[in-house]
């Protein structure tokens, strides 16, 4: 018998609102992520990919109706998330301009989660976390507005890693960055995963970023998974589902012939 | 046969006076725009947007535009009075911005806004303008133009909003369209549909398109020629199809650091900046 996957999602449904105004953002999706691997969720806006990530992280508003099963290393997750869960699962958000407290120094930003979780030698940890994301000690007492977008995103990654989680949920971590900065941040994320054996769930609309970072990916549309494929299928351009094929073709750039073949995929 | 370029820009400079001193956003940019798709690529802060905005004089109050030459169809844009500029802006050179959410008036219906755009520049009757607006909405492939005409901006999706913006900018049949990241907020499938509309305008009506974007792959596949900007200067001008074999180390560095769908997932080459590029 093999070890339970790090993350299992089984028949997840998320509904916002009630009655005639109910909106089914996620419509019964299932996937699992093995420990130490990276799983991508791709799709266009409104496909439900971020909602899935928030459901795993326990970050949906209380009004959202969540059903289906989610397990972490074999343990079923309830609605409330424990401190122990937060210790194991951390999140990096898309916008490094909005996700760091503007009046806290980098030192305070990194120190807070370490203290919340009652860790010792916070000072050492802050120094090490900065080094790990490629920022030297001079950044420690700066405020977010004194940092570039790429440096802020490194701080956000350091904040997620300082408590040594097993799983990092990444919500479009490089969409707000220039491509040269994106490459640096992706390299940092890749190296940290290798060095610490982390498990990633990466949400992105950018197929190239997901192909680059992930072992497996699920293509979402209208709250459903249309296809789960491994990165080899992506790289050799052999997806099965016509929607995935269309998405890949459109992602490769402008192609007048492709425009004529675009189809609407209804629910 | 070489036709006269629509726009000639020579040694364009845009400077801002700030409390911390003078900032030179654009430092001596020169190019010509014909009836073609000319791309400007660069990272944030490279001056690509300020270059596009300077052509219409759309620069913040603390900014100054200078150039040896800035001429459109024989008109000297730098010497032109406000009245002449008003007759050019929108009617002959129009601009498509990145985000329809901030560029459409939220309290006026979509149709009325397009009608207004048309009637400001022509003496058309309301009825005629309405007809033109509906035609234009179908031209940008909106399936139920009558329905969308009466909708308010918050009732349409991002892709629809951007098509509406394009319809509004196209209706006076401008000679030049400056498009600043016109599709960056859109899903990829909507993006290529919107680009096809711009492509058709260039091919069918001979519009000149200045396409400003940070997306190198998109520019390489869509444009005819590309200007690569770095620190307020054009470091390289290259045919779009040759962008992948560009010469300048900055352009090459940018192309190389893009993750690729068919890549092998190994670490991406990181761009090493050379202070000489900014000289």
Overall description:
The complex is a heterodimer of chains A (about 270) and B (about 280). Chain A has about 270 residues and is of the alpha/beta class. In chain A, about 35% of the residues lie in helices and about 25% in strands. Chain A has ten helices and ten strands. The longest helix of chain A is centred in the C-terminal third of the chain and has 18 residues, at about 180-195. Chain A is globular. Chain B is an alpha/beta fold. Chain B has two domains: about 5-90 and about 175-279, Rossmann fold; about 100-175, no CATH class. In chain B, about 35% of the residues lie in helices and about 25% in strands. Chain B is built from ten helices and eleven strands. Chain B has helices spanning about 50-55, 80-90, 100-105, 110-120, 125-140, 145-150, 160-170, 190-205, 215-220, 250-255, and strands spanning about 5-20, 20-35, 35-40, 65, 70, 75, 95, 175-180, 210-215, 225-230, 235-240. The mean pLDDT of chain B is about 90. At the A-B interface, helix 6, helix 7, helix 8, helix 9 and helix 10 of A face helix 8 and helix 9 of B.
